[in-house]
Amino acid sequence: MDLKGKSVVVGVCGGIAAYKVVEVVSRLKKLGAEVDVIMTANAQKFVTPLTFRSLSHRPVVTDMFSDPEYWEIKHVSLAQKADLFIIAPATANIIGKLASGIADDMLTATVVATKAPVLVVPAMNHNMYANPVVQRNIRILKDFGYIFMEPDTGRMAEGSSGKGRLPEPSAIVGKACAILKPEQDLEGIRILVTAGPTRESIDPVRYISNHSSGKMGYAVAQAAHERGADVLLVSGPVGIGCPDGVRLISVTTAQEMHEAVNGNFENCDVVIMAAAVADYRPAEVSERKIKKNGDEMVLRLVKNPDILKTLGTIKGNRILVGFSAETDHLEDNAAKKLESKNLDMIVANDVTMEGAGFGTDTNIIKILKRDGTVIDLPLMSKLEAAHRILDEVRDLVAGPAQAGSKERGG
Predict the structure, then answer these.
(1) Which of 11, 127, 143, 193 has the most CB atoms at less than 10 Å from its CB?
(2) Cα 15 to Cα 12: distance, rounded to the nearest angstrom
(3) How many CA atoms lie within 13 A of 224 on its CB side?
(4) Residue 167 — very low, low, confident or very high, per pLDDT cuts 50/70/90?
(5) Between 293 and 9, the higher pLDDT residue
């Protein structure tokens, strides 16, 4: 990605994650962007302005009333020159001020004055992020057109764990690139993505499920939308928001997902099955809570419909992509699934590897294609992995068209 000629203003707020923004600025500069940094007073307690000045090769703005190097109204000039504004780490304080229209320092005044897209990257204690007031303020800003990145989940600076970590610098820069120079290489392509787990009820209070968080599937849906595709997301129960611009069908059980996918299959060109669908469900579901009785409880399970295999028998010229989460014999098991379910491509990962399991914000994947190609990818954010998957999908879509094959639709 070449960002030459693009101007990015980075607003750094007072949070421990400010140190990660140093790499964001460095990466943007390496891509050729002109980067101006505005630091709040509290941000300077975590990272010095000199650090950002050394990387950006530009003066760092810290004071609304400092003497300018040459005559200009600084917050207006930065607001006008920006092609993109990034606020990272975005604290609860800055989110609240912007949602209320407060412009009492250089950062907020510049944001209020800009017409550029504003990318807000929250990072804070997980309880602060979940606070209803903070979530209300985020909704207000989203309604005004501000673009938000979801925080990562993991260990916090104070030792607790939860959702509130700043996303990896590579993911932030990837999002910035998508906003500044979005690749529309999937424009006009209709993509159906499944994500998350399914739940199979035992009784009104218990169910069978799995550890899928839905993050990988949601990343695929987001990346596909960024690249111009018309995206429908069929999702099991998850704790993350639907990407902007993506249509969502929420389901709970494997049968509901089966029906939603089958009902929309004819109207898509590509299906990417990232969901972790339960293979079995209880044969009987009790209408009342089953009480403890003895040391054992035996459940009789019956097989759920195999959505992916069903699609493989009727896919026609559509592109069908599966996922394979394994604990051993990764490539062999994925290759068997690719063949038995008539897939065009399969994405495999070993969930026992650090950084590649369920619920993580990163992944380590292998992509296997029908022509025998195997692509090994290193540890990367799930959004980056999603874009690499879509690179291969794009090539698969283009291949039949270039060969003069008949229209999609089966």
Answers:
(1) 193
(2) 9
(3) 29
(4) very high
(5) 9
The domain made up of 7-180 is a member of CATH 3.40.50.1950: yes
Task: List, in sequence order, the alpha helices (H) in 82-131.
Answer: 92-99, 106-113, 126-130
Q: Where in the chain is the domain with CATH 3.40.50.10300?
A: 190-402
Cα distance between residue 96 and residue 235, in whole Å: 31
User: Which of 42, 93, 210, 333 is labelled catalytic?
Assistant: 210
pLDDT of residue 357 exceeding 90, the answer is: no
| Least confident window among 4-13, 122-131, 289-298, 392-401 | 392-401
| The one-letter amino acid at 278 | A
Type of residue at 71? W
Domain with CATH 3.40.50.1950 in the chain: 7-180
Question: What is the rounded (10 degree) CA torsion for 394, 239, 310, 333?
Answer: 80
Amino acid at 26: S
Closest C-alpha among 174, 151, 178, 124 to residue 24: 174
Instruction: Give the CA-trace dihedral at 40, 41, 46, 49, to 10 degrees.
Output: 70
Domain 190-402: give its CATH architecture: 3-Layer(aba) Sandwich (3.40)
Is 210 an annotated catalytic residue? Answer: yes
269 contact partners, CB below 8 Å, separation of at least 6: 189, 190, 191, 318, 319, 397, 408
What are 228-270's pLDDT values in tens digits? Answer: 999 999 999 999 889 888 999 999 999 999 999 999 999 999 9
Per the model's pLDDT, the better-predicted residue between 388 and 244 turns out to be 388
DSSP 170-234: HHHHHHHHHHHS---TTTT-EEEEEESB--EEEETTEEE-----SHHHHHHHHHHHHTT-EEEEE
What percent of the chain is predicted at pLDDT more than 90?
75
Q: Average the pLDDT over 195-203 and give the result.
A: 97
Instruction: Identify any residues that bridge with 323 across adjacent strands, giving them in sequence order.
Output: 347
pLDDT tens per residue, range 310-325: 999 999 999 999 999 9
d(CA 319, CA 408): 9
pLDDT recorded at residue 24: 96
Report pTM.
Answer: 0.69
> Residue 256, SS3?
helix
Q: Under 8 Å CB-to-CB from 343, ≥6 apart: which residues?
A: 308, 312, 320, 321, 322, 337, 370
Average pLDDT over the chain reads: 90
